[in-house]
## 1
Amino acid sequence: MEGNPDDIQLVNQLDRTKTDAWEELRSIAKELTTEDRNIKWTGSGRLPDGTYRLSYPAYSERVRNATKLLSTVGAVTPLYYWMEHGLPDYSSASELSVADAIRTATFVVRGERFSDGTIAYAAEEGLLDAILNILIKWYEME
């Protein structure tokens, strides 16, 4: 099926040569705090000049860096048509395969562009931690 690559294709997209990015990703995964995972939203409403501001998630620096680094190491890929296929099915985030972690990372990071709070959901539900931990474990074992 087009846009739904097999597991090997997805895993082969991970870039092991980006050692600095992998090391930073590992560091971020270890340092994520409850505060990082408890995403605050900005206020919304009418401003003094009459315009309206919509609320949006205010991500911590660690969460912002983690999502950028996921792209850097190849875990966010155009190979997976996330809009068509959505989040992989899983009963527990810890049960994600490496390929499903890539699919999930792609869905979460790309999804944020269209729906504020997609990353917030992943951070709050433990999905971001699972993605990071699974990918780092793969990197360390290869």
## 2
Amino acid sequence: MSAEEAFSPQSSLGYQVNHLARLLAAALRERIEPLGVVPGQFAQLLVLYEQDGLTQGELCARVHVEQPTMANTLARMQRDGLIDRVPDPHDKRRSLVMLTARARALRGDLVAAARAVNATATRGLGTAEATVLMSTINAAITNLSSDTDHLAHPPDHP
């Protein structure tokens, strides 16, 4: 068997996880778009549901996206009536991202939509299998995050 044959999309973790992510996003989109929310806004909303009033930089760190991407997403969310930006009372140079009443009212429906997508994705798996799946995914994320951090911040060489 040649190297090309041994590495197919079906045997590639990256390909399979990417395919799964696209399917999850499409299923989520189908459920939340009627509410005026798109999957690209969902992670920000979840983080703000946990802690409202974060800065754009804090959101970037928690959602793991770059500043330009976050700026575009927040502009759309503000346009869509999901967030407001208010001056930080402790540092007038910064703005805090605050959920609107509309966004807070959507929380139950958005969480229900995500739970429904997750239930569909794990249909047929027992609780133990679903737990192992999440643990395995979290381990892979941790492995790649630490590897990427190492590559982004190599040690100084004398």
## 3
Amino acid sequence: MITIKPSILDPEAVAIKKALNQLNVATVAQVKRGQHFELTLAADSLTEAETIARQLCDQLLVNPTMETYVLEVKEMAVNS
């Protein structure tokens, strides 16, 4: 999941929070908007898959000036 850093203003998230308040949903204290990517990698181990995924995030998918990310790597069953 890629999200905007807390120090960066996210006008879309602000607009969503305002709309929720207008719908009388006053219990929402904060809205964070993000991007979600699912990648299927052919790797020999979870460690290798995580290394590849981090490189992809760092080099292409994430703008480190404005965004941060959380990475989750799972092993998938191989269909024979």
